Amino acid sequence: MSAANPPVLINRDPHDPVERIMTITDNSAPATAPVLGSAELVARAVALQPLLREHAARIEADRKVTDEVIEAVSAAGLFRLTVPRHFGGHEADIRTLLDVSAALAEGDGSTSWVVTVMNTVQWMASLFSTRAQEEVFGADPEARVSGVFSPTTATSRKVEGGWRMSGRWYYNSGAWHSTWALLGMPVTDENGEVVDQAFALVPRTELRMEDVWYVAGLAGTGSNCLIAEDVFVPEHRLMSVPGALEGEVPAEHAPGGLYSSSFSAVLNVAIGAAQIGMGRAALKLVTEKAATKPVSYTYYETQAESVAVQMQIAEAALQIDTAHLHLQRAATDIDEAAARAASLDILTRTRVRADTGYAIKNVLAAIHTLLDVHGGGAFADTNPLQRIWRDANAAGRHAVATPAVAMEIYGKALLGVEEQITPFL
Questions:
Q1: Are 226 and 153 in contact (CB under 8 A)?
Q2: What is the model's pLDDT at position 21?
Q3: Tens digits of per-residue pLDDT, 57-90?
């Protein structure tokens, strides 16, 4: 992109939030794209909410985010939150990722999940070698990376310059829309012995996808199975999992900033981000309807007049706020430590995971209360509340942030129990 042909911000109609989305006239040189601040990125996510609500039912029915929404999110620059600035990304902090994800989830949970996961995995891709980053982001300014970390069915064979990898990876959120995939892989030596676990970057064109995502919640994430059949993975496109967990990565970024963030802590906070937005969407829907909806089999002409409803609404609102405050604290701890190029201590890392689990627990409780308030009508196919309920409950069962496991981990740390039940801390 030359100086004579800069990015253009088009505001066709200031009252139409969708029209606030940035239109880029030329994507040929991402390094000259504007780096946006947190407030503008969040504003762009908010501006997309009407479009996401309009497409939400179709996204669920199609079991993938619509092309129109993907294009709008891309035009708004929200797939580039965690991409390095020298590749045209915003290199935004984790707090911004949290706030953008929550804002998108107020429009549609599946869309937010896909955008959040891809930004998280793209942050991980930015920890790979410079050569790998160039292949992903340098070659394509709009590259989108999805990922599955578990190497459950993967195998590898050492060959000259790298490995030949085969396997199946469930469940890859955003697989329909990704251009690269980050996949868990066992690293073997010349004798076939497993000597390490790694993340491997693979072009999506070298992988098959099997459409298996038939689920009750987050159906629109299209979290299908990716299949590799003897795919070559060069050495520079591997990153050791144990090394990454300890902050030892191939990337050569300057110390301090986004890429100094504690690895597992980032994954934890990202998993909880969409919950905040879904909780807020449920609260908004129920409170708005309460102004005209009666309390059945009572003398109350509107729910808003009922003291019982008032108390339930207040409780739900505070639970959602509690969830947000916990995740906000976690994101702030990550960002502040990263700015100093410092590692979070073990107690803080366990607390960040507990913050995420506790946030999820509170949002799910709030949505349950809001369903009680709204009544049986919440389960009509035409009512968005039932989709929010299903999406939030599916998201809340992600293994990385299961509330009970998070509490056990944090409790052990508080009590000085040295036993660890997971390496993801």
A1: no
A2: 43
A3: 999 999 999 999 999 999 999 999 999 999 999 9
- In tens, the pLDDT along 210-248 reads 999 999 999 999 999 999 999 999 999 999 999 999 999
CATH fit for domain 145-240, picks 3.90.550.10, 2.40.110.10, 2.40.50.140, 1.10.10.10 = 2.40.110.10
Q: What pLDDT does 11 receive?
A: 37
Which DSSP letter does residue 35 get?
Answer: P
Q: What is the DSSP letter of 420?
A: -
Long-range interactions of 384-390: CB distance < 8 A, separation 24+: 384/53, 384/56, 384/281, 384/285, 385/282, 385/285, 385/286, 387/56, 387/57, 387/60, 387/109, 388/109, 388/278, 388/281, 388/282, 388/285, 389/282, 390/216, 390/217, 390/218
Q: How far apart, in Å, are the Cα atoms of 275 and each of 33, 62, 137, 219, 331?
A: 31, 22, 29, 15, 15
Contacts of 378 (CB under 8 A, 6+ apart): 371, 385, 386, 389
* pLDDT tens column, 97-155: 999 999 999 999 999 999 999 999 999 999 999 999 999 999 898 999 999 998 889 99
Locate the domains of the chain by residue range.
Answer: 17-138, 145-240, 261-415
pLDDT (0 to 100) of residue 151: 87
- Which architecture characterizes domain 17-138 according to CATH? Orthogonal Bundle (1.10)
3-state secondary structure of 195: strand
Q: At what angle do helices 263-290 and 384-395 cross, to 10 degrees?
A: 160
pLDDT reported for residue 30: 44
Cβ atoms of 403 and 268 closer than 8 Å:
no
Domain 261-415 annotated CATH 3.40.47.10: no
- Report which residue type is found at 330: A
Cβ contact 167:184 at 8 Å: no
